[in-house]
Amino acid sequence: MKNKISSDNIKIGVAGAGSWGTALAGLLGSKGFRTELWVYEEEVREQIEIHRENRIFLPGFSLSDNIFPSNDLAQVVSGKDLLLIVVPSHVMRETTLKMADHLSEQTIIVTASKGIENKTHLTMSGVIEETLPDMPKDRFAVLSGPSFAKDVAKQAPTAVTVASKSQDVAEFVQRIFATPFFRVYTNDDVIGVELGGSVKNVIAIAAGIIDGLGLGLNTRAALITRGLAEIRRLGVRLGADSMTFAGLAGIGDLVLTCTGDLSRNHTVGKKIGEGHRLEEILSEMQMVAEGVKTSKSVYNLSRKLDVEMPISHETYHILYDDISPKEAVYRLMTRDLKHESDKTPSSVSPKS
Fold first, then answer.
1. What are phi and psi for residue 26, nearest 5 degrees?
2. What is the residue extent of each domain of the chain?
3. DSSP H helical segments within 52-189, as ranges?
4. CA separation for the pair 261, 265 (Å, rounded)
5. How far apart are CA 301 and CA 46, in angstroms?
6. Helix, strand or coil for residue 161?
7. Containing H/E element for 257?
8. CA-closest candidate to residue 331, choices 342, 316, 352, 346
9. Helix or strand or coil: residue 196?
10. pLDDT for 35-65, tens place per residue?
11. Which residues of the chain are modeled with pLDDT < 50?
12. DSSP per residue over 106-131, as a string?
């Protein structure tokens, strides 16, 4: 891999110009890479071309002249050495199906989208494997970790991880994205990295609800800790390495999304805790809060696999069954008492 593609003349495409896609395209452009950016909205394309700014999704940040926006998806993905996909999870299947006839088998595909598809319960790499069956699986990679788009755009020191089944691919993507303010680690646990980045959005909604109810820091700390236990439990059941959830794509991303003011999922939860209705909240948002749809996937998948995820389940009931947040908190706090870890406690009583 290191000798096959030179980073000096690499051809890069980015599919998706929301805040995160724009921030990552901006990072690549600032490194000197010619980066074609697929933009869904005509208005956004014009803004970037004329003003060098995405005024809808990432206002206030100037974009490099190395970024070339286009509304033509086929043009952006064709002939690329590296394609970064950053579209909302619920349109991943539709978007990648449209790419299928225009991709080279040599293209490295990196997804930075976080979510679990509702009908299939597949992560984004799983969706891509279905929609792009001719693409070699060892040329897929996942980029995840604690990284708000605005902080990356203003070049605040950030650390993320890139996971791939191929160490060569992971290291290549690592070098392409790494800057003095954007540190990239490698990982080989693709499913663990994806689940950490997806399920944390559900827990972040729950954390927002806690804050909206004004329940305080004790409650938030407990929720984050037990939320991580749920993410790890589901991940291990699906074959992930439990250590992944102690890293950037696990606890790192979870803490950021559950506590940061820039988190869309936390914002949704906080407004619910304050008494607003979900439909009203979503109608006022320009960007997608992935946890709302992912909550449904996690609820159904965990029931199918018989994985205990009480916080995620109560979050689902609040979002979709109109259960009151206070009732959900009460039900969580009055569950059967048990050992903190998933292991069975010893039946031997301590000596007096």
1. -60, -40
2. 12-188, 192-333
3. 73-77, 92-99, 124-131, 149-153, 167-177
4. 10
5. 41
6. strand
7. helix 253-259
8. 316
9. helix
10. 999 999 999 999 999 999 999 999 999 999 9
11. 1-3, 5, 346-352
12. T-EEEE----B-TTT--BHHHHHHHH
Beta-ladder partners of 108: 82
Classify 12-188 by CATH class: alpha beta
> Do the Cβ atoms of 66 and 34 come closer than 8 Å?
yes
Helix (H) or strand (E) holding 82: strand 82-85
Positions annotated as catalytic residues are 200
Q: Which residues contact 218 (CB under 8 A, 6 or more apart)?
A: none
- 320 SS3 class: helix
Residues 329-350: pLDDT tens digits? 999 999 999 999 887 554 444 4
What stretch of H or E contains 186?
Answer: strand 182-187
Residue 274 neighbours by CB under 8 Å, 6+ apart = 212
CA-wise closest residue to 209 among 157, 256, 274, 155: 274
Q: pTM of this prediction?
A: 0.93
Is 3.40.630.30 the CATH classification of the domain at 192-333? no
Instruction: Please list the residues that pair with 82 across neighbouring strands.
Output: 12, 108
Amino acid at 199: V
Q: State residue 125 phi and psi, 5-degree precision.
A: -70, -35
Instruction: Tell me what pLDDT residue 288 has.
Output: 76
pLDDT attached to residue 8: 64
pLDDT of the residue at 1: 45
Q: How many C-beta atoms lie closer than 10 Å to residue 241's C-beta? A: 17
Please enumerate in sequence order all residues whose Cβ is within 8 A of that of 179, keeping only pairs 6 or more positions apart, or say none.
27, 30, 31, 155
